Amino acid sequence: METIIQENIQSEIDRTFLVHKRQSILNRTQSIKERKALLEKLLAWIKNNQGDIRKAIHADFKKPYLEIDLSEIFVVTSEIKHALKNIDKWIKPQKVSTPLPMLGTKSHVQYEPKGTSLIIAPWNYPFNLAIGPLVSAIAAGCTAIIKPSELTPHTSALLRRLVAETFDKSQVALFEGEVEVAQLLLDKPFDHIFFTGSPAVGKIIMKAAAENLSSVTLELGGKSPAIIDFNSDLKDAAAKIIWGKFVNCGQTCIAPDYVLVHHSVKEAFLTALKNELEKMYDPSGKGIEKSKDYARIVNGKHLKRLKNLLADAELKGAEKYFGGYVDEEEMFFEPTVLTELSEDMDIMQEEIFGPLLPVLSFGDLEEAIQYINMKPKPLALYMFSNDDDNIKRVFQETSSGGAVANDCVLHFLQNELPFGGVNNSGIGKAHGHFGFLAFSNQKAVMHQRVGLTASKPLYPPYGFAGKKIIDSLLKWF
Ligand SMILES: NC(=O)c1ccc[n+]([C@@H]2O[C@H](COP(=O)([O-])OP(=O)(O)OC[C@H]3O[C@@H](n4cnc5c(N)ncnc54)[C@H](O)[C@@H]3O)[C@@H](O)[C@H]2O)c1
Asked: I need a surface site. Which of 1, 82, 328, 391 has the fewest CB within 10 A?
């Protein structure tokens, strides 16, 4: 039975890929007006179905409506509006200047759609991370096949409806399913693969892409640090870290993974963390599990993984400063702050991706910088300080996909910035113009008129005239 289903999906994938291959060639002459029309249709669908989007994501892991509106819907609608506003500018061929040895020629960069694209999305922002990259694919003129996460079935079903009601199958298609479906898709020679997920699966994707030399954008994860300098506004920093860490129940790729706080303000910072946590998630004092503003863990497997991280840390000497309560039936995991950490704990090696926050201290900034530089490069780095020189120093002496001073997570909303990681946290960039570039081939175009080779002196049989030209090139340029 399973084999028959597998064969059906296989033939459906084969057929869809072929259709997309043909369409992607036609798309080379697609007008900007056509691309804008597709984006406007997408925008209208989202506006008309906002209630259904909320319901689907909430059904998957009780994400609060306000968080859905901000981090799933607004992020995507602003991405679409930004593309609609800028697409004419992005598509325009870019003239380049002509260096002296190239006099007599004329050159420009032409943006052509890469062609067929595959978008593989994770579960943690299931709408945003499937549709956000689709906006860039459409803006660039690519066809797209989306493979949403199997862990958020309500959102996946909604995405299927969105695609069916908005696009012609030849432009955008969607395949739901488990890992096997992703693997069948990955056998196809896509022109570009845009993957969002874990570094471990990112490596599998890159290997599969290598078979066809498909280009890739890998939006991965990692351990993003937050540094609290001795002179920072502790109350403000604590509030921002509590929000950045516990929004979406800590299941955010750019959540601060752990905190490095200057030893002189550690106790005051921990007190501020506790105060801010209670203010946000337990204002009535009835317990955080009663809060409607706190999401749940996506499934039992992840809940168990987080419980194991906590147990391993406690076994090796970590102390719970706050939290630790778990209700398995409700998939509730209380926001938990840990101190007394050491490097042999799993929690200090793996991306946490849940509501556990280790707080470590450092003596001077050099120590914090060295600690970060010993680990794989993070997706984001947050620096809370009142000293601009210290901020500048940390940003210069560490490497991360993004960096924010005196806040966290917010850079995701800034469409003018490239979003993505570096090495272990990702390859390539997304959002706005950078997303458009990810799905575009930057074609080098030159027109010869009377340039270097026009009178053929550089061709064999080599003679005096050719030698003279080469000699002067070497001498003067
Ligand atoms: N950089 C970003 O923008 C960003 C955003 C969100 C999440 N993330 C990262 O994603 C991870 C969490 O999401 P997840 O658990 O859904 O990630 P995941 O890597 O387990 O899965 C992501 C997608 O890949 C597919 N997949 C899983 N195993 C596969 C395999 N062997 N072959 C082919 N496809 C496979 C899944 O079906 C899913 O659609 C975290 O590491 C997080 O940091 C990164």
From this structure: 1
Note the pLDDT of residue 293.
94
Helix H or strand E segment including 279? helix 266-281
Q: What CATH number did the domain enclosing 375 receive?
A: 3.40.309.10
Q: Give the distance (Å) from ligand 1 centre to CA of residue 354.
A: 15
| Ligand 1 probe mutation, 71, 146, 149, most atoms within 8 A of CB | 149
**How many domains is the chain partitioned into structurally?**
2
Decide whether any atom of ligand 1 lies within 6 Å of the 122 Cβ: yes
Does ligand 1 lie within 6 Å of residue 429's CB atom?
A: no
Domain that residue 413 falls in? 225-419
ipTM score for this prediction: 0.97
Which listed residue (67, 72, 79, 219) is catalytic? 219
At 101, is the pLDDT very low, low, confident or very high (cuts 50, 70, 90)? confident
**Domain membership flag for residue 471:** no
In whole angstroms, what is the distance from residue 454 CA to residue 457 CA?
8
Q: Do 85 and 194 belong together in one domain?
A: yes
Cβ atoms of 378 and 351 closer than 8 Å? no
For residues 289 and 136, give the distance between their C-alpha atoms in angstroms, rounded to a whole number: 38
